[in-house]
Write a structure and sequence with these properties.
The protein contains four helices and two strands. With 84 residues, it is mainly alpha-helical. It has one domain. A two-stranded antiparallel ribbon has the order 1-2. Helix 2 packs across helix 4. The longest helix has 15 residues. It is globular. The model has no long low-confidence stretch (mean pLDDT 78).
Length: 84
């Protein structure tokens, strides 16, 4: 069975960072996912669908020690942040 869209995102764009006090927040996580989808030329799913996929992988959105990695991290870091 081929890895799902979300499994690919998890393996290519995030990693555990136990040293960090706090991981990616929900907005940052969705922004990273949207950047990853842009690079992969895929239509991003709504946040609720991403949250369900994360929970299915034992990741709680906004309550994790996740960090960005890969090309999507570079894109996400160069985008303007809300409110700036």
């Amino acid at each position: 069975m081929a890895p799902s869209h979300f499994d690919q995102f998890l393996s290519q764009a995030i990693h555990q960072n136990q040293d960090a006090q706090a991981g990616l927040g929900a907005d940052e996580l969705y922004g990273l996912y949207a950047s990853w989808c842009l690079i992969k030329k895929m239509e991003p799913q709504p946040p609720e669908v991403l949250w369900e996929a994360l929970i299915a992988n034992r990741i709680l959105p906004g309550d994790s020690h996740l960090a960005m990695t890969g090309p999507a991290a570079v894109v996400t870091r160069t985008l303007p942040q809300p409110g700036s």
